[in-house]
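User: Here's a chain of 394 residues. Predict its fold as tokens.
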Amino acid sequence: MVIIQSAEVTLGQRRSDDRVPLLSGGRYREPPLRHLWLGLQRSSWFLMVYLAVFVIYLSLGAFVFGSMEQPVERQLHLEIRNRIEKFLLKYPILPEQELDALLMDVVQATNRGVAVTRNVSSEPNWSFGQSFFFAGTVVTTIGYGHVTPLSEGGKIFCIVYALIGIPMTLMLLTALVDRLMVPSTWLLRYLNAKLGHLYQPFNIRVFHLLVIATILVVFFFLVPAGVFNVLEPDWNYLDSIYYCFISLTTIGLGDYIPGDSPNQPLRPLYKIGTTVYLLIGLVFMVLTLTVFYEIPQLNVGSVFLLKSDEYVANASAYDSEKARIQGGPSLGGVMPSSLGSSTTSAVPFGSYGAGYGATEEELGRPSRQIVRVKSRREEDSPSPEDTTPVHARP
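Assistant: Prediction complete.
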């Protein structure tokens, strides 16, 4: 007979034979079937519902953007048409078709980052500062699109450069965030020490997240927006905040680009400084998202994963097996064994999304334990000393 003192089956960690150990008898059985609803797993149903909600969300965005932007677009179109008509009346000798062709060429050149008007600085787009800024937008996947390679060689190099640079950037962000998680964890433990007797662990972790998010908003949105508002003559404060958000979320629409105003002083240095700001801001953005996803209660995306089905199925099997072994109400986590000794109740699953650097006690979760198997034969069988003849014993 085998006594299992404690057991654990953590999520995503299965034995090589893919069998779930029972809590008594030392036997193994196949894992329980996942919950199926009309032939589909639980997570698949949740995913289908989520896809429907996502499509509705996209449709809602299309409706709102269209209703808000179409009137402004029509008004701007009318103003441009009126200016063209006045220009043709003032210069009737110029054919309208020629003017349209000229305007089309100007628009195409502007879309490719080539300015042709005289009131724009004649500094080339591919100076070192401009090129450094472009390289930063490529490897960070911001990609404003205001300046693009014009030559075929430049396009090929951009593809190769991005294939190498994007993974390098991801590794850099991961390494920096890993180090920033150390002081973040210190802050979380400090909050636990000071507030643990007053609030639940979940509330403390949410407060910790709010502290990190506040630092992000203040030092990477509000303060930089004020700096851009001063340096960019055509931007107001809302435009500056809009640029910071669009850039640090890597949306990169390209409608606002710092350093492109006419007669911008120290333009190369300004571009390099903006690139450094974007890199540091992305690091802290990833740090905030990491802290967010370390809170299991807020990580609702886990219900759409296939391993969530395995978790639910194993949890049901564990509960039923535990109730069968105990044969009654809970005994406070201690199950009597057949030898009269008490053994600690097993915790079958590790908590999903365990916190970074925090102990299980700090997070309010049951501690993990290790499976230890001991045979009764080993206890009942005599030791080597007992089997030694008396005259031969030392």
